[in-house]
Amino acid sequence: MAPYHRISVRVQATLSRHMNGHPAQMLRRLLAVFLLVCAAAVGASAQDASPRWRAIVVDTFNSRLGSPDDISTVVARASATHVNLLYVQVRRRGDAFYLDGSEPLPEGVAIEGGFDPLGDLIAKARAAGLEVHALLTLGPVWHLSTAPADPRHVFTRHGFQNGRAVEGAENWLTRTLQPDGNGTSMEGYRFGNDYWLDFGHPAAASYVVDLVTRLVQRYPVDGVHLDAVHYPEAPAGSASIGYNAVAVARYQARTGAPGLPGQDDARWSEWRREQITALTRRLAVSALAVRPSLVISVSGMATGAAPGDPRGTVAYARTFQDWFRWAADGSVDLVVPQVYRAEHVAATAEEFAAWMAWLQGAPRVRPLVIALGAYLNSLEGLLRQSRTALTAAGANGGLALFSLAANNAPVVTNPLSSPAGRDTPQRPFEDVASALRTGRTTSGQLVDQAQVAGIFSNTVPRPPTPWKDTAGYVLGTIEDGSGAPVDGAQVRLDAAGVPVGPADIVSDGSGVFATPAVTPGTYRLQVVSPAGGAYASDCTVDVSARGVARLTLVVEASRAGVASCR
Questions:
Q1: Same domain membership, residue 248 and residue 216
Q2: CA triple 528-532-537, angle to 5 deg
Q3: What is the domain range of residue 484?
Q4: Do 406 and 326 lie in a common domain?
Q5: Which of 44, 202, 467, 481 has its CA 20 to 30 A from that of 556?
Q6: Are strands 534-543 and 521-528 parallel, antiparallel or unpaired?
């Protein structure tokens, strides 16, 4: 009963700090957190026996993948934790940890001549019973103060050359209009150390779609994990982001609004969200068109306070990533909220608990796999958060740990140690794996205050994906009579006159649109042009389970009100 005592004391302390605001609302939230943590402790053994998404991130800033021995080490360590899949970062910043790609090998990383890290990893992981999901970090494309050595690098061709930003339509980078400072530099193009693609630029969006499609055509990965599909955070908590010249010109053409849009302009904000959602769907459906069995997952930003309303989150309002919608409409197979918080710090621990309480009841039609920042936590904190996250994720959800190499942190006067207040060191990997399996270090030291079996005491399969047998997709292009892409047209599906699917299916700057998952059947498509004119198509499309139906819709001024297809 000791864990319950500690929980109740913490809830009472939190309540006393916040009751001056909205006592009834706060009480309900804290009660939900309390019940969630209690349920995590009570249900630990049952969770371990059930199929779960158990992932660990192999981040290639910290894990070496340059040789067969490196790959063998990664697979052996992952197997020791009893996870069942690896999110392997095969693209960091415009590079490729695989040979058969269009981007250069990573700079400063020694890879043996002719050795293919991803190919070798797939073979060895499969032999160990592990799935491999290729993690591609898509938004940030460069992070060093020196230019890439390889002239093929996307940053050199479409970012900066000779210390100056590439001019005109060949510049694919996003920027802020805020003055440099508070984390930005290089005239608003650099955020921290990173330069980011602007996915409001049609060529940048098509570039990353081609990257993903090429990878799944050439490597038999089990899944694709889309990381950093959003805008970077602008300085000082602002929404000043997305001001690539081509992107702004597209927005102006769509809306007719003159001049630069204001950072808080509601139409500009919705347009930026539209770019991220359209790209996410296009990436997912394009990959599934190659291999329908793939599991497509996406990282969801979970910085800042937990949602009351998702529209108030950093993800939605400042980086324009509406992953809340994607979890609820079947745009991807899995959403992976990145709830990276330190459990030994009272303020961040409360924030973590509030996110878990919200996620447990969040609208969803697909599983949540909750990502935890192992690198921020002691082993005690990681195990405590893991139990809570598994409960919040639900029966068909799971857990992702970041990361295999950066897996725990030293904590001075750790309130979670046993006894409380001891300094806890950074433990070796062997202790991390042992704690996940048994709740104790290799020497037998207790690190799990729940004092039950480890969260991963048994190996379990990952859950099935039954929705794949009951859903299909449409991937299409809209053109005008001259063959030019139609940007910003809304696409509506109907079956026997009944609208199907969400109302936010919109063609991107290349005229491409992709639907979330839809029930197999025959659909007629309608197009609403950016100017508001409605076009009924004179064709239908047949969507099959696990299938991607393709078509091109042609909107011609000479055929007012009718769109043809081919």
A1: yes
A2: 25
A3: 471-565
A4: no
A5: 202
A6: antiparallel
Helices (H), 296-423: 314-317, 323-329, 346-360, 379-393
Cβ burial of 265 (10 Å; 0-12, 13-18, 19+) is middle
Region 391-411: mean pLDDT is 97
Which of 177, 159, 176 has the alpha carbon at shortest distance from 168?
159
Coil, helix or strand for 278?
A: helix
Contact predicate 547/293, CB 8 Å? no
Same domain, 429 and 502: no
pLDDT in tens, 533-553: 777 777 789 999 999 999 999
Cβ atoms of 431 and 407 closer than 8 Å: no
84, two tokens:
């069942």
Res 24: pLDDT: 44
pLDDT at 32 over 90: no
pLDDT per residue over 149-194, tens digit each? 999 999 999 999 999 999 999 999 999 999 999 999 999 999 999 9
Task: Write down which residue in 417, 440, 468 finishes a domain.
Answer: 468
State the residue for tokens 């970062």.
89
Distance of alpha carbon 343 from alpha carbon 522, whole angstroms:
50
Is the pLDDT confidence value at 20 over 90? no
- Which of the listed residues 437, 468, 499 is the one where a domain comes to its end? 468
Q: What is the pTM of this model?
A: 0.91
Tokens representing residue 286 in the block: 């394009």
Domain co-membership, 391 together with 443 = yes
Is 148 contained in some domain?
A: no
Can you name the residues that pair with 494 across neighbouring β-strands?
499, 524
Looking at the structure, do residues 22 and 128 belong to the same domain, yes or no?
Answer: yes
Q: In angstroms, rounded to a whole number, what is the distance separating the alpha carbons of residues 455 and 393?
A: 14
Same domain, yes or no: 461 and 485: no
Give the C-alpha distances (Å, rounded to integers) separating 370 from 21, 240, 340, 546: 30, 29, 10, 26
